[in-house]
Amino acid sequence: MAKNLYLDLETTGPNKEKHAIIQAAGIIEIDGRVELEFQFLVRPHAGYTWDRMAALKTGADQSVVETYPPAEVFYNEFLQIMGNYVDKFNGKDKFNLIGYWCQFDYDFLWKLWERMGDPYLGSWFFVPLIDVATLVAYNVMDRRNQFKNFKLVTVCQALGIEFDPDAAHDALYDIRKTRELFQLVRSWR
Q1: Which residues contact 149 (CB under 8 A, 6 or more apart)?
Q2: What is the pLDDT of residue 54?
Q3: Contact 86/123 with Cβ under 8 angstroms?
């Protein structure tokens, strides 16, 4: 039984040490069937910093983000969601974590787990993670020079997946498109 968790995060910047998660969205898929979509808005931890470029990308307003539920709410509810599908104490029962540049998202999750005093994030996921960007890059390496960049929006459009650039950097929209792109890559086998 394949248990896939597609995950995308939006953050206040690129540095997991000083920036924080502000939005998390995911899709849980069991044996190819979508079981659940979820989305969380997350108020960052105390002492985080705000990167101007991240704010421009996400369109997030710091004063609005400060009204979001605290990171502890996301952490607890996300644990509950994952626990509905995976037994973290069973080494053979884990999610395939799938994302676009997913190591970035995993690193931010890892930092949040550290802040929560929980060293067991790895109990939920098989390693290595499944990075859709890398899979696409491998499959288009003979024509990679034809891509102006390797952003999700660019890759989707180049491969015929409809993508609204104005919707980019909304975690739920991005993860839906990531899943669609992953399905396309899998069809190339």
Answers
A1: none
A2: 79
A3: no
**CB of 75 within 8 A of CB of 43?**
no
pLDDT at 61: 81
Q: Are 119 and 125 in contact (CB under 8 A)?
A: no
- Give every residue of the chain whose pLDDT is below 50, as ranges: none
Q: Which residues of 125-147 are buried (b: 16+ CB within 10 A; e: fewer)?
A: beeebbbbbebbeeebeeeeeeb
And the tokens for 74?
A: 């996301």
Nearest-Å Rg of the Cα atoms of the chain is: 16
Q: With residue 94 as reference, give the H or E element that holds it.
A: none
Q: Tell which residue, 182, 181, 164, has the closest CA to residue 173.
A: 164
Distance (Å, rounded) from C-alpha 32 to C-alpha 168?
Answer: 25
Query: What is the predicted pLDDT for the residue at 51?
Result: 85
The 8-class DSSP code of residue 49 comes to -
Position 32 scores a pLDDT of 95
- At residue 168, the pLDDT reads 86
The pTM for the full model equals 0.94
- What are the angstrom distances between the C-alpha of 48 and each of 18, 26, 72, 76, 128? 5, 23, 15, 20, 29
Tokens of 162: 């409809």
Give the CA angle between residues 98, 99, 100 to the nearest 5°.
145
